[in-house]
Amino acid sequence: QVNSKRGGSPCKEKHVVLLSPVGKIEISGCEMGVHEIKLPKMSELPSGAESSAACEVCEGAEEMPEPLQQCTAWLRAYFCEPATTGSLPVPAFHHALLQRDSFTRQVLWTLLNDVKFGEAVSYKQLADLAGNSRAARAVGGAMRSNPIPIIIPCHRVIRSSGDTGSYGGGQLLKEWLLSYEKLQKEKLA
Questions:
Q1: Are residues 103 and 176 in the same domain?
Q2: Looking at the annotation, which residues are catalytic?
Q3: Are 66 and 96 in contact (CB under 8 A)?
Q4: What is the number of alpha carbons within 13 Å of residue 179 lying toward its C-beta?
Q5: Given CB 3.0 to 4.6 Å as the disulfide criterion, which of 56, 59, 72, 124 pairs with 17?
Q6: Boundary residue ending a domain (87, 104, 136)
Q7: E.C. number, please (predicted)?
């Protein structure tokens, strides 16, 4: 149970599991929006960074609130037809971190809106984009607390040196997502 706002009524949280090329992705949310996307921890990469037709809801498909339907549709498109994600609605988010006004929220929204598929940005560049050029470390903190990975693409934030940096889903998943996006972008070019 998640309280929507202080003193607000608790959400009726629903859970969905999406079977994807990178494993089972757990999504939770309510009528108001997506609460969280949990990525699988990977010990080895799936073979190839190809887009794949294997991406379907394997648990929780019944009675899915609209934000979860939009979220699964968006993720399915991301893995199967990445060129179409730009035309899909981004689901509403209903996580406390994305409700209150904060630098973290500003960074996550900036990342969502400004760093496109197949691009990468350094922590410092993202701090600049979010309006505080000296806040590269705070950007790192924002990436660690991102409740909606892949849709809010924290995997696209790398170190200035070009090193990928850390990732909540693990190093292998971050490298796979980056190479997958690069390959898909090259195909579209």
A1: yes
A2: 154
A3: no
A4: 13
A5: 59
A6: 87
A7: 2.1.1.63
Mean pLDDT on 46-63: 67
Which class for 75: exposed (0-12), middle (13-18), buried (19 or more C-beta within 10 A)?
Answer: buried
Query: How long is the chain?
Result: 189
Cβ atoms 19, 54 nearer than 8 A: yes
Q: What predicted TM-score, i.e. pTM, was given to this entire model?
A: 0.88
Closest CA to 91 of 110, 107, 70: 70
How many Å apart are CA 172 and CA 149, to the nearest integer? 15
Contact (Cβ atoms closer than 8 angstroms) between residue 123 and residue 161? no
- Written as one letter, the residue type at 76 is R
Kindly indicate the confidence band of residue 3, based on its pLDDT and cuts at 50, 70 and 90: very low
Sequence-distant (6+) residues with CB within 8 A of 130 are 103, 106, 107, 110, 139
Backbone phi, then psi, for 13, in 5-degree steps?
-75, 135
CA 143 to chain centre: 10
- E strands within the chain? 14-20, 23-30, 33-38, 56-59, 121-122, 157-158
95: CB partners within 8 A, 6+ apart: 33, 34, 35, 36, 147, 148
Out of 66, 87, 108, pick the residue that ends a domain: 87
